[in-house]
Write a structure and sequence with these properties.
Layout (H helix, E strand, L loop, with lengths): L8 E6 L22 E7 L3 E2 L5 E2 L8 E4 L5 E5 L3 E7 L3 E5 L1
Antiparallel strand pairs: 1-2, 1-7, 2-5, 3-4, 5-8, 6-7
């Protein structure tokens, strides 16, 4: 991937939405929930604090993270691949 986030920004690949319900009903694209979990694929260098020092991010590439369904901005990369670009503060938790 040629996308390098700046500062405290993080690139997340959102998990795929489920295509069927537990009962086996196939969902159209418009009825699918937006997954609130994804995998970190790139991180910035960190936020610059008030004293001028750079604070590293708490997440790293490969972490599975939780975020709100409307966090970040969605971008298309290389055809069909979509990623989210968000600030570290938009991430709620790391799934361990």
């Amino acid at each position: 991937m040629n996308l390098k986030p700046l500062g405290d920004r993080v690139v997340v690949e959102r998990e795929e939405a489920k295509a069927t319900t537990a009962g086996g009903i196939v969902l159209p694209e418009t009825a699918k929930d937006r997954p609130q979990q994804g995998k970190v694929v790139a991180v910035g260098e960190g936020r610059i604090t008030k004293d001028g020092k750079r604070r590293e991010l708490q997440v790293k590439v490969g972490d599975t993270v939780l975020f709100t369904s409307y966090a970040g901005e969605e971008f298309k990369l290389g055809g069909e691949k979509k990623v989210l670009l968000m600030r570290e503060e938009d991430i709620l938790a790391v799934v361990g």
